[in-house]
Amino acid sequence: MPPEKPHWADLYREVVTSGLCTGCSACVVACPYDVLGYDDGDGRYKPFHVEENGGVDDCTHGEKGCTLCTRACPRFRSWETEIDNYLFRRERAPEEVAGISEEIVLTRSTDRELATAGQDGGFVSALLVWALEHDVIDAALVSTLEGDGSSWKAVPMVARNREDVLSSAGSRYTYCANPMAYKDAIDGGAERIALVGMGCQASAPAIMSARKAGKIARRISLSVGLLCSKTFDDAIFDRLFDDKYSLRREEISKMNIKGVFQVWTNDGEYHEIPLKEAREYTRSGCNACPDFAAEHADISAGGIGALNDWTVTIVRTQRGRDVFDSMVTAGAIETRPIEDDPGVIPLLNKLSRVSRKRWPSTEFASPGTMPVASPSASR
Ligand SMILES: Cc1cc2nc3c(=O)[nH]c(=O)nc-3n(C[C@H](O)[C@H](O)[C@H](O)COP(=O)(O)OP(=O)(O)OC[C@H]3O[C@@H](n4cnc5c(N)ncnc54)[C@H](O)[C@@H]3O)c2cc1C
Ligand code: SF4
Ligand code: SF4
């Protein structure tokens, strides 16, 4: 039998329309023929195929042997095992529920401007500025707010310098497909690119490398993951924040989630909204997501700590280790042992366990058929 060459028709059936698709957009940016589009209207956040070329559920390039969309998809078939084996040369132990890691530590940017702009300790922003200014990356794919920010519509952007990083710091809790900024980064001449994103996006660079997905796999050379249990539909602004709590989106200055939805407004007031009220606005692409801890990033970052203004930082790969150690040596970040905040590890494991239960067991059990690159080196 000739080797299977899974392509868009398989991706469409097994991931896009099965409920597994997170809307990460990796397939869209990996397609060399530009026959995939991305629909982020009305909470859809899904890839689609341009109809002239094989119809919505097929692709003539795929029929001729192009497999790049399935090679780029971090939810296609045995993605989790393939990436674990590729990145770490082994499968995770059952107790490694938050993924395989080298070190978990608290960090904070020593640059006060970055620490203040950041959602927690400003670690992610400090990393990006450090990597941009020390010839590690040429650009980073991040998220910002559209226009003057008053709509709270999160949109992908390319950060090329400190000012860009500062303007994109902080967290938005609606979805933003940061890989969609890839083309802009390439058009601007970038060859070494960092991707910042929640776990659904942070697994993309590793699966692209494991499945040899061409130039894009080489170019996205650093994956910075954000811990995440869900994102929300844009409707949450009007139907919950505004209708129930009279918090108009243009009056909101900052949001965070720490057991409750925390909302700060431009008049300096602080508001709390119970998370259970937000549940009905969960984005559908998150419903089957098993990855809380951004398990395949080079470095993952989160805000589950009780110590505000510190980022919980998980160093996972050799590439992550190299960047992290260089930042410590250069004094770009300060660190504290994770034991200073004893609630972090139990909560990390608990939230990871909750997310893992979402993955449909039938799909999880399905054997992978993709050719996996030999795990010759850790990233
Ligand atoms: C949607 C979402 C859900 C999250 N859920 C949790 C959670 O449940 N538990 C937890 O511990 N941590 C969660 N985090 C992570 C947390 O909010 C911080 O991003 C993390 O602690 C890093 O803080 P920092 O100060 O180091 O980052 P910063 O220096 O503020 O950098 C944050 C980076 O995230 C990017 N970003 C912001 N919003 C988005 C978005 N919507 N999509 C893609 N990229 C974005 C920014 O562009 C920036 O590069 C979530 C983050 C996001 C974006
Ligand atoms: S999970 Fe991502 S790569 Fe896979 S089909 Fe959905 S958008 Fe494409
Ligand atoms: S829960 Fe977070 S990581 Fe998972 S699909 Fe939703 S946004 Fe992505």
Shape: globular
Which hetero compounds are present in the coordinates? flavin-adenine dinucleotide, iron/sulfur cluster
Beta strands, count = 13
Helix content: 25-40%
Strand order of the largest sheet: 5-4-6-7-11-12-3-13
The tally of helices reads 17
C-alpha Rg (nearest Å)? 20 Å
Unreliable parts? 365-379
Major pleated sheet: 8 strands, mixed
- SSE topology string: HHEEHHHEHHEEHHEHHHEHEEEHEEHEHH
Structural class assignment: alpha+beta
* Alpha carbon gap, first and last residue: 34 Å
Beta-strand fraction estimate: 15-25%
The structural domain count equals 3
> If you average the pLDDT, what whole number results?
93
Descriptive report:
The protein has 379 residues and is an alpha+beta fold. It has three domains: 8-79, Alpha-Beta Plaits (2-Layer Sandwich), CATH 3.30.70; 105-233 and 282-361, no CATH class; 235-281, Nuclear Transport Factor 2, Chain: A. It is 33% helix and 19% strand. The strands form three sheets. An eight-stranded mixed β-sheet has the order 5-4-6-7-11-12-3-13, with helices on both faces. Strands 8-9-10 form a three-stranded antiparallel β-sheet. Strand 4 (139-145) and strand 5 form a beta hairpin. The relative contact order is 0.17. Residues 365-379 have low confidence and may be disordered. It binds flavin-adenine dinucleotide and iron/sulfur cluster (2 copies). Flavin-adenine dinucleotide binds next to helix 7, strand 4, strand 6 and strand 11.
